[in-house]
Amino acid sequence: MENQNCCGNCCWGDGNQRNWVCSALMIFLIVGSLVAIVWGWSVLKKTGLPTPGSPMLFVSAEGRVTVVPDLVKINFSVVSQGEDYSEIQRDNDSKMREATDYLKEEGVDEKDIKTVQYNLSPQYDYNWCRQAGEPFVPCSPRISGYQITQQVEVKIRDLSKAGSIAANLPEKGVNQINSLVFTVDDLDLSRAEARNEAIMKAREKAISIATSSGIKLGKVVNFSESDLSQRDDRIFAIESAGLGKGGGGDIPPSPLQAGSQDVVVYVNMSFEIR
Questions:
Q1: Which terminus of the chain is more solvent-facing, meaning fewer CB atoms within 10 Å of its CB: N or C?
Q2: Measuring CA to CA, which residue among 201, 213, 217 is closest to residue 274?
Q3: Measured between alpha carbons, how far apart are the two ends of the chain, in Å?
Q4: E-state strands within the chain
Q5: Distances (CA, A) of 44 to 39, 40, 61
Q6: Tens digit of pLDDT for each residue in 161-218?
């Protein structure tokens, strides 16, 4: 088409009009980009976050608190087997009731006794159809009986009684002690103390570096922490299983030692450099 000029996908009638429109479009794009950059920078500054390229000082420190256990958790079970599930259920409930009554007699609060598992499962006979002297013939298993497992976790706050209670539970019908754990009732408090110590050390380190290097610190712009102590709150544990029921009379308490444990928190902090 005669006298038609194009800029991108748009066409105009003469060169002067084309040049003016294209120049205006380029100026608009440049100005718009600059405005967006300035606006984004101002928003970032208002949030308090470090702007791209801002110098920062990174420090890390460790906080450590030694704790002594004030609580013992004992996890135990009563396991019953037999052909009649209603009969073994009565037997299992009776033994568990005897065990929990014993705990209460020893001063354990009812709120510190918790059932954590109750399981009834069939027992199978895989050889019921095999005849003596004949080759093995595969067959479907049949239920030959049942097993009930009732599991309880108890918190013992008087550590002096933990050994005797653990030793005498089998006399009260308990035939499986799964674990004995020394721990701290409120471990979060010890973690908070370790965290505060780590933060204080990190600040002191940052101030020392700033003083030595002649820089001026701003506010903290980033923080993270790692708990290096044992994740499951265990301080000291004794694992055992399948403890059989012994003879009559009280059993001497087990020589349990609670010991101590370090609660460790590691922090990373970033300071803005002004």
A1: N
A2: 217
A3: 63
A4: 5-7, 10-12, 56-67, 71-82, 113-125, 142-156, 176-183, 217-227, 236-239, 261-273
A5: 9, 6, 29
A6: 998 999 999 999 999 999 998 888 888 888 999 999 999 999 999 999 999 988 888 8
Is the CB of residue 108 less than 8 Å from the CB of residue 89? no
Q: Is 41 left (phi over 0), alpha (psi -120 to 50) or beta?
A: alpha
Torsion angle of the four alpha carbons 161, 164, 169, 175, in this order, in degrees rounded to the nearest 10: 130
3-state class (DSSP) for residue 97: helix
Q: How many CB atoms lie within 10 A of CB 202?
A: 23
- If we measure between CA atoms, which residue out of 141, 139, 140, 143 comes closest to residue 123? 143
d(CA 125, CA 142) in angstroms, rounded, equals: 5
- Measured at the CA of 82, the angle between CA 76 and CA 83, to 5 degrees, comes to 150
Q: Which pLDDT score, from 0 to 100, does residue 20 have?
A: 65
* 3 state DSSP class of 249: coil
- Which amino acid belongs to residue 167? A
Structure tokens at 45: 């500054």
Q: In whole angstroms, how far apart are CA 112 and each of 2, 115, 212? A: 96, 10, 55
8 A C-beta contact, residue 135 and residue 159: no
